[in-house]
Design brief:
Structural class: alpha/beta
Number of helices: 15
Number of strands: 16
Length: 376
């Protein structure tokens, strides 16, 4: 017997798309009982040392008026690299007396940890707001250093240059395709087939990576349908959620951009959205992800029988024929051939398996020559 309290993630499958800190996030989810599927949809790849070194030397060549820090990992990586070249103290001293704009709270924390002067942080945590703020001042003759976050930020840097600033960009790392493309494609298929209850994102590039993988597999429309209906997208903050907001996919976000808050928010939201409780044949039936609680007995149900049960539970009491149930079953993505839907025999097997697992044939009723229903 396991704890199936309303705030527990027992029975639910949660996807982790993060590259960094994915083990930490997976551990937090598993402690709450979740089944975790980990498939990074992008990776952070350090740039060649020569490129970072050249940018650092350019920064040190003349006094700096303003530093823009876009990510905590970017600032830490830059300073660590400078330490390795014997320039760490020189770089910190060069930046110590100037104003620092941190794009978000994590970047601000890294600024403080580095002993730099903590200035302004935008409420939206976006580069758009940072750029608007900087353009509101006189930038003519100002030397502005911008630590990049994996993307070139071309439009933002050009706007500052057009305003008269001498902009020095510091590229520390870049976003790259995921290390295991097949695993990421499989994640798309799991989301599309609703075998995942929630999917977590800790950066906007991870969202973009998933959308790109789905597009390459010609599954983008099916993915968006799943994210808009059955699978809960959980983003660590508003900036992370931006790519989904642009295409009208609603997301869940914690009040603070922290992994612990993300997990707590997910643990309260997912059971509310994904659990359903019915009274069937005088038994209490609670569907929770891949688990079903029959009265007080917990049953782990495989994908095909669970798909049948969910389809019947969405219209309790109504008879669903085999064609309707076949459409609810996950498509076959085990081969390189186009995905195929199971036929009538697969429905019979799924119903038989479901009855055996639930331990009561009366919970799934056969209506002769018509189909199946839940006798609520």
């Amino acid at each position: 017997m396991i704890d199936v309290g309303v705030r527990s993630l027992h029975g639910y499958t949660v996807a982790v798309t993060a590259d960094r800190r994915r083990a930490e996030l997976a551990s937090l989810l598993e402690r709450r009982g979740a089944r975790v599927v980990s498939a990074p949809t992008m990776q952070i790849r350090p740039l060649e040392e020569s490129a970072v070194s050249a940018a650092t030397q350019n920064c040190l060549r003349a006094p700096v008026d303003l530093l823009v820090v876009t990510t905590a990992i970017g600032l830490r990586s830059w300073l660590d690299a400078a330490d390795g070249w014997g320039l760490g103290e020189t770089l910190r001293a060069h930046l110590s007396a100037i104003e620092v704009v941190a794009r978000g709270p994590k970047a601000r924390g890294a600024v403080r940890a580095a002993g730099l002067r903590d200035g302004w942080t935008p409420a939206s945590e976006t580069m758009d707001e940072v750029t608007r703020r900087l353009l509101a001042r006189d930038l003519r003759g100002q030397r502005v250093v911008v630590q990049l976050h994996g993307e070139p930020l071309t439009a933002h840097l050009q706007a500052l240059r057009d305003a008269g600033a001498d902009v020095v960009d510091i590229p520390v790392y870049m976003w790259a395709p995921p290390p295991h493309a097949a695993r990421a494609t499989r994640l798309v298929n799991l989301v599309v087939s609703r075998q995942v209850d929630a999917i977590t994102f800790t950066s906007a590039p991870a969202v973009d990576g998933l959308l790109r993988i789905a597009r390459n597999a010609d599954r983008d429309d099916a993915l968006l349908d799943a994210l808009r209906t059955d699978v809960v997208p959980v983003c660590i903050g508003a900036v992370c959620a931006t790519p989904l907001a642009r295409i009208d996919v609603p997301t869940v976000q914690p009040a603070r951009a922290r992994l612990g808050d993300l997990v707590r928010t997910l643990a309260s939201e997912v059971p509310t959205r994904r659990a359903s409780t019915l009274r069937v044949a005088n038994r209490r039936l609670e569907i929770r992800g891949h688990l079903v609680v029959v009265d007080d007995r917990v049953v782990d149900v495989p994908p095909a029988p669970m798909a049948v049960l969910r389809a019947l539970a969405r219209q309790p009491g109504r008879v669903l024929d085999r064609d309707e149930l076949a459409r609810a079953l996950p498509a076959d993505h085990t081969s390189d051939e186009p995905a195929t839907r199971p036929g009538g025999h697969a429905i019979e097997m799924a119903v038989t398996r479901l009855r055996a697992l639930l331990g009561d044939r009366e919970l799934v009723q056969t209506v002769v020559k018509r189909g199946y229903r839940l006798p609520v």
